[in-house]
Specification:
mainly beta, 7% helix, seven-stranded parallel β-sheet
């Protein structure tokens, strides 16, 4: 708002100048004579129209009149009315606020109108009818500028860093606006892009204060950051010629509230194109859209609603991360979804996955705290690493029979997740997949999982029930670290390998091993149960007791009288007389490796049989 008020003040200054002083019209018949024609008045004229021919000497005169300031002037410099030779000036600043060059003709000739303070490069008009760089750069008094109608191209740094410029009129013959041509004019509120413009370069109109923008149908190319950081920009009207919205083209346009692309022919929205448009609340995409690239709409906390068109092929990494989206429906045409595409969307509560997506990629929905459940469709085959990590609202997950792999940390740090059932078709559970899920109570792992990877349930302090299936062959280190509520686990007969520190930071009351051959360490000197030999009871099949007594992994339990046996009639206890479960069966009499949901028939250590509802 402050910027707008200052811009209005600048416009009022120009209006008052026009009202108080009639426009001075000069027909510059002889190029290079403008300063001579104006004489001493050149420093007092506020409104000037120049017709006829002007060369580089005349451009230098116009720059002085418009208050050109060299680059080494301090930012806090205040005009004193004196000559500021200390900053490169040997003449007073001019006062020309309004400059009309619409009927002027640029001609070659004269000395350089600008010398770069750093590089020493010089700039002058090199060809008749063609402008060159820096013609109206840093003109501190200029409020309104009308460019020559003859121009077909606006060069780099053409009208830039003019702190009071409010109005700029471009002739209808312009077809190209080069990189950085019109930039860093902090009060330039209005700009009409002529209908014949086809190309706008990198940062061509960056960091102005344009409020409304109409892109003509002729415009077919814009480049990196073309309109970036126009913080007052509220409305954009897209023409039909543009196919690609370039990298960062509208980045940082924090005043943009609604984006309607529905009548455009846009096919690709490149990375960061609308990133950091913090007021943007809704987006309508055209039917022509095919790709939305990485971070295209990231960091837009007000963005609550988008409707994806059928025909969209891909959404890139972090494309909508850190937005305010509440619902996402991905069309069936979508075949590519990038990593972190919707990460940290804290209000996202509903997700519908189209049939074209078979993998939930890395970090895709991480930090989506409003998400309470995950119910994936049958066509999804894998869940990438950290895909649903830090989803604090997540209570339950339902994995379809199509899922084969769950990546590392896929559901880690989901502080309210209570139950996990891994279906038999899953063959891979990545490291830390459920790490630090502090309210996780029950886990059932299907028979397809052969290895419990490192830190799988590390820090799951509420975990009290784990059901492992036949088919499990290896348990890596720290799998149950700090699972303080987990008092017992039954390992299936297929277990062959236990890693060093398997039980580090975990002290169960009892462990059951159903295999007739004891599992071995990954390495000869590995101690999977270091620190538990005096604290934990280990139960093994009676027929395999001798093998377990000789095992480097289990013999210390025997030495501490904590290696016990069980058979069909119960547990042979040496120093333990408690009645504990020995075997589990379903209602058909089929033996189970662990209790399952529903009614279980349980054979106890004293030979009795019980029915238990789980």
């Amino acid at each position: 708002m402050k910027k707008v008020l200052l811009a209005v003040c600048a416009l009022l200054m120009a209006t008052l100048a026009i009202a108080q002083n009639e426009t001075v019209v000069i027909n510059n018949a002889t190029p290079g004579k403008l300063a001579q024609t104006l004489g001493a008045e050149m420093y007092t004229i506020t409104n000037l129209k120049v017709t006829g021919s002007i060369n580089s000497d005349d451009v230098a005169t116009l720059r002085k009149m418009a208050g050109f300031m060299p680059e080494n002037v301090p930012s806090d410099w205040a005009e004193s009315g004196e000559i500021i030779s200390d900053y490169g000036h040997d003449t007073p600043l001019g006062n020309c606020a309004v400059l009309d060059l619409s009927e002027a003709h640029l001609v070659k000739g004269g000395k350089a109108y600008y010398t770069d303070e750093r590089s020493g490069d010089t700039y002058s008009i090199e060809s008749d009818g063609k402008a060159n760089k820096y013609m109206f750069d840093r003109c501190y008094k200029l409020v309104s500028l009308i460019l020559p109608n003859e121009l077909k191209r606006l060069p780099r740094q053409f009208v830039s860093r003019c702190p009071l410029l409010v109005n700029l009129q471009i002739g209808n013959n312009v077809s190209t606006i080069d990189a950085s041509s019109i930039h860093d004019n902090p009060y330039l509120l209005s700009l009409t892009i002529p209908k014949g413009v086809t190309t706008m370069g990198r940062e061509a109109c960056e960091s102005n204060s344009i409020e409304e923008l109409t892109l003509p149908n002729s415009l077919n190319t814009i480049d990196y950051f073309t309109f970036a950081y126009n913080t007052n920009l509220k409305t954009i009207h897209f023409g039909t010629g543009l196919k690609d919205i370039a990298w960062g083209a509208f980045k940082g346009c924090s005043g943009l509230e609604n984006l309607d692309l529905s009548t455009s022919n846009i096919e690709n929205i490149q990375s960061y194109a609308f990133s950091e448009c913090t007021s943007l609340s809704s987006v309508k995409f055209p039917s022509s859209l095919r790709q939305i690239y990485g971070n295209a709409f990231s960091q837009n906390s007000a963005l609550q609603a988008v409707t994806f068109n059928d025909g969209l092929d891909g959404i890139g990494g972090s494309a909508f991360s850190n937005t305010g989206l509440t619902t996402v429906t991905l069309p069936n045409s979508l075949t590519y979804l990038g990593s972190s595409a919707f990460s940290s969307c804290k209000d996202l509560a509903s997700i519908s996955i189209g049939t074209g997506i078979t993998e939930i990629p890395y970090n895709c929905f991480s930090g989506c705290n409003a998400l309470t459940s995950v119910d994936l469709p049958e066509h999804v085959t894998s869940i990438g690493g950290s895909a649903y990590s830090y989803c604090d609202g997540l209570v339950s997950i339902t994995l379809p029979s199509s899922i084969q792999a769950v990546g590392a940390s896929a559901f880690a740090n989901c502080s309210n997740l209570e139950e996990v059932v891994i279906p038999d078709n899953v063959t891979t559970l990545g490291e830390r997949a459920f790490q630090y899920d502090k309210k996780l109570k029950h886990v059932q792992i299907g028979k397809g999982v052969a290895t419990l990877e490192t830190d799988l349930f590390n820090g799951c302090e509420s975990l009290s029930s784990v059901e492992l299936s036949e088919g499990l062959t290896a348990v890596k280190k720290f799998v149950f670290q700090y699972c303080s509520s987990l008092k017992t686990v039954t390992f299936p007969s297929t277990l062959t390998t236990l890693s060093n520190s398997t039980c580090f930071g975990w002290t169960p009351d009892s462990l059951y091993f159903l295999g007739t051959q004891p599992a071995t360490g990954e390495r000869t000197k590995d101690e999977p149960f270091y620190g538990l030999y005096t604290k934990t009871k280990v139960y093994v099949p009676e027929s395999a007791l001798d093998a377990y007594k000789q095992s480097p992994v289990f013999k210390k339990f025997f030495e501490e009288d904590n290696l016990l046996t069980f058979n069909a009639t119960g547990i042979n206890t040496v120093k333990d007389s408690r009645i504990v479960p020995v075997m589990w069966f379903d209602l058909t009499g089929r033996q189970l490796s662990a209790p399952q949901k529903g009614i279980n028939i349980v054979k106890m250590s004293d030979g009795s049989t019980r029915k238990i509802m789980k």
